[in-house]
Amino acid sequence: MKHVFGIIGGGMVARYHAQAIQAIGGDVRLGAIYARDPTKAAALAEEFGCVGYSDLDEMLADSEITIVTIATPSGAHLEPAIAAARAGKHIICEKPLEVTPERCQKMIDVAQSEGVILSGIFNRRFNPAVTALKKAVEAGRFGRLTLCDAHFKWYRTQAYYDSAKWRGTRALDGGGAMMNQGSHTIDLFLYLVGSPVRRVSASVALLTHERIEVEDTAVAIIEFENGALGTIQGATSCWSTDGNPAEIQLCGSDGTVILRDDRFRVWDFRQNTAEDEHIRATLMTDGAIGVGANDPNAIDFVTHQRNFEDVIKSIESGEVPSISGVEAKKAVTLINAIYQSAAADGEWITL
Fold it and tell me: Nearest CA to 328 among 114, 171, 113, 105?
């Protein structure tokens, strides 16, 4: 089946999308890129060998395009998603799906009513280490999960926030360290624990940046429905030379695993299996820091490619994609609850 992509957005992330689409090959190609600025649209189109549009309706009227990816600012996902769905295009939307659960749900509802697939981009789920850890959780190897934590103590310069008017705004960024930088790790955390959150208590602060409306430092205490407790710590205020790794730590009565970026720092179970030796030989960290901790421009497109391929498979099979709209909404719901708790001086918020 032939698949032609169109990209909505003209920034850094749109470039990852274009590179990922071109890497798929076969009957998949990039047909068009839309950017509001005609000069930017033309430059991207020339670079990636496709058609450039500065009118979104014109791009969506292209009958060859079957799938669109959305790479606009976070709080500007809803409107192009609705337009794409009504034009009959399948949709793959960057993280976070939108900035509130209500706006996410509107996207989900319109896609369903128009009979198109809506998928979020949480590309870290497609790392081999994540696949191995999810399998261990589902096999019950941890016994009873007890403490589960997610930490991403990153840094962004003031120049990063000053580089675009939408950065650090509630309307278009939706939040700070938790929503923008942290949504990938928070999604992965929820996915790996595999239990809904029962309630959350949180505190957020703006400590090292100026002229932004959102937090650069945040902590949350989590209680899961399965009884496990946990924390989330996130920041763009933690300077380091090369960037601090993101970590997800899962501990239980029979095991402890610490995922450091896309490799393991600890893989330790009471009962060993033959597969454990393979994991320790191939998926343990070598001490390198994951890309993007300090510099978002350093992120590569390989896992985006896997994310896109998952959606193509769903279109061809009629199955729900791994990261459906409903699945992508979960991180946004928790992050909004974190903000609600912080605004109420740490009051417990039940989800």
Answer: 105
DSSP run (H or E) holding 13: helix 12-24
**For domain 3-124+301-324, which architecture applies?**
3-Layer(aba) Sandwich (3.40)
Euclidean distance between CA atoms 198 and 23, whole angstroms: 41
C-alpha 222: how far from chain center: 20
Q: pTM of the predicted model, to two decimals?
A: 0.95
Neighbours of 253 (CB within 10 A): 10
User: Whose CA is closest to 96, among 186, 168, 202?
Assistant: 186
- Render pLDDT for 288-341 as a digit per residue (tens, 0 to 9): 655 555 555 556 789 999 999 999 999 999 999 999 999 999 999 999 999 999
Distances from the Cα of 153 to the Cαs of 96, 157, 242, 303, in angstroms?
19, 14, 12, 22
User: Comparing C-alpha atoms, which of 115, 107, 24, 110 is closest to residue 72?
Assistant: 107
Q: Mind listing the pLDDT tens digit for each residue in 247-299?
A: 999 999 999 999 999 999 999 999 999 999 999 999 999 876 555 555 555 56
**Calpha distance 86→106 (Å, rounded):** 13
User: By CB neighbour count within 10 A (0-12 exposed, 13-18 middle, 19+ buried), where does 137 fall?
Assistant: buried
Please, what is the Cα angle at 28 between 25 and 33, to 5 degrees?
A: 110
Q: Which two tokens stand for residue 225?
A: 């429905």
Domain limits, the chain = 3-124+301-324, 127-295+332-350
Domain at 127-295+332-350: CATH code: 3.30.360.10
> Exposure pattern of 220-242 as b/e (b: 16+ CB <10 Å)?
bbbbbeeebebebbbbbbbeeee
Residue where the block lists tokens 């014109």: 58
Kind plus residue range of the DSSP H or E element containing 83: helix 78-86
**Would you call 298 helix, strand, or coil by DSSP?**
helix
